[in-house]
Amino acid sequence: MSDLLAQLAHRIGDTHVLTDPQTIQPYLTDWRKRYRGKALAVLRPASTAEVAAIVRLCHDAGVSMVPQGGNTSLCGASVPDTLGNAVVISLSRLRQIRQVDPVNQTLTAEAGCTLVEVQVAAAQQQRLFPLSLASEGSCQIGGNLSTNAGGVQVLRYGNMRELTLGLEVVLPDGQIWDGLRGLRKDNTGYDLKHCFIGAEGTLGIITAATLKLFPRPLQQCTAWVALSGPEDALQLLGQLQQRFSDRLTAFELVSDVCLQLVTQHIPGSRSPLEAPSPWYALLELSDGAPDDRLAGDLLATLAESPVQDAAIAQSEQQARALWLLRESISEAQRLDGPSIKHDIALPVSAIPAFLQDTAALLQHAFPGVRLQVFGHLGDGNLHYNLSHTRPGNVDLFDDEAQANRIVYDQVAHYRGSISAEHGIGQLKRDTLPHYKSALELKLMHQLKASLDPKGLMNPGKVLV
C-alpha cells in the first residue's frame, strides 16, 4: 500500500495524507465513542477534482473508502470498521460557498461547509437556509445530505431532500456527476440526486449541493409550554396549525426527564416555568409581516388550549435560552451516562398510543428503566432513549437487543420507521432487514451493485 499512499500524496500533497496513529484517531472514533475503527490513512482533499483523483486511485487499487464530514453521526456511519484496510476521505477542506443567488433563492455550497457557514452565507443576502440542528456548528453539509438531516423546522420547510435542488457527486469509479441545477422543475427522467441523499456515502461522495433559500422572517415568537401528556400536545399542535398554518415553524416535544437532565448537567440551565410538568412543548412561530400581532395571537390560542403554563420569549436572547434547553438534551444525556438511543418516525396521530404501550412493555421487561423522550412532534420524529435511573449503570446494555426489539416491533406495529433522521450506519445495519421488506432490500442491493460493483464505498454501512 506504500505505492498507493505515495500516489495519493502526489495528488493532494504529503501534509494531507495522514497516517500518524495519534493524529488520525479523532477521525476513527464516532461522536458517541461507541465505534472505533482503523484506517490506512486519512485523506484531506481540497477540491472535487482531488476527491475524484483519490477515488480513481482507490478504485483501481481495490481500496475501500469512507467519506467523512463533521463526524457527528449518531449511527457510526462516518468511521471505518476495525479491519484497517480502508481510507477515510475527510471533506473538511471543501469549504467554498460557490454561489448565492438571492433572486433564484438558491445557494451552492461545497460539502465541507458547516451548517452554520451556510446559514450565515444565506443571512448575508437577507435569506434563510432553514435546516437547524444542535450540531450545526460542526456538522457539514455533505453529512447533512448523506443522512437526509431533518432538524427542528421540518414542519414548515422539510428535510434535506426537500431543501436540495441539485448535487455534485464523485461516483465510485472517480467520474464526476455535475447535477448542480437550481431548478424547481426538471422533468427529464429519473431524479438522480435522491439516490445519494440519505445513502450515507455508500453510492458516491457528495462534493457540493445547490440548496433552497427562503425569505428571512421579520417576526418570530418562541414559547415553552407545560402539558399534562402527549394527547394534549397533539391537541395544541392541531389548534396552532389551524390558527397559524405554515407560520408554525417548529413544535418540539420534551419530557420532564429530559429537562431535568439538562438542568442537572448543563451549567446555567434552568426551567423557564415555576412548577414542573410531565411534558413540555417548545414552539416557534415565524412571519414575514413586520407587525407585532404574533405574540398576541399566540396568547389567545394558548388560552383556549390544554396548556397548563407558558413562558413566551420577550427577546431574541430569551428565545435563544429556550432553544438551548432543547438543543442541550443530547449533551446532557452523554454527561449523564450511557443510554440506548432510538431515532424513530411515527404517524403523528399514533404517538400517544405508542408512548403509552411501549413504556408499559419496557417497564415490564426492565423494571426501573428511565425513558428519555423528546423530538419533533410536528413531523412525527421521536428520539426515544432508554437508561437506568442510576448514572453509570449499564446493565441495560446486556439486553440491548431485547430492548431494541420491543421498541422497533412497536414502531412496526404503528407503521413507523426505525430511522427518521440519523440514518442506519453500523448501528442499525443488522436490524434493517427485519423491518424492511425483502423487495425493498433487493432493490437497494441492486442499486448498490449498479453504482458500486466493487463494494468500495463506505462498506459495512446501511446494507449487510
TrEMBL record:
Gene Ontology molecular-function annotations: catalytic activity; FAD binding
Entry-linked Gene3D superfamilies: 3.30.465.10, 3.30.70.2190, 3.30.70.2740, Uridine Diphospho-n-acetylenolpyruvylglucosamine Reductase, domain 2 (3.30.43.10), Vanillyl-alcohol Oxidase, Chain A, domain 4 (1.10.45.10)
UniProt xrefs under Pfam families: FAD-oxidase_C (PF02913), FAD_binding_4 (PF01565)
Matches recorded under InterPro entries: FAD-bd_oxidored_4_C (IPR004113), FAD-bd_PCMH (IPR016166), FAD-bd_PCMH-like_sf (IPR036318), FAD-bd_PCMH_sub1 (IPR016167), FAD-bd_PCMH_sub2 (IPR016169), FAD-linked_Oxase-like_C (IPR016164), FAD-oxidored/transferase_4 (IPR051264), Oxid_FAD_bind_N (IPR006094)
Gene Ontology annotations of biological process type: respiratory electron transport chain
Residue span, FAD-binding PCMH-type domain: 35-216
SUPFAM superfamilies: FAD-binding/transporter-associated domain-like (SSF56176), FAD-linked oxidases, C-terminal domain (SSF55103)
UniProt name for this protein: FAD-binding oxidoreductase
Organism encoding this protein: Leeia aquatica
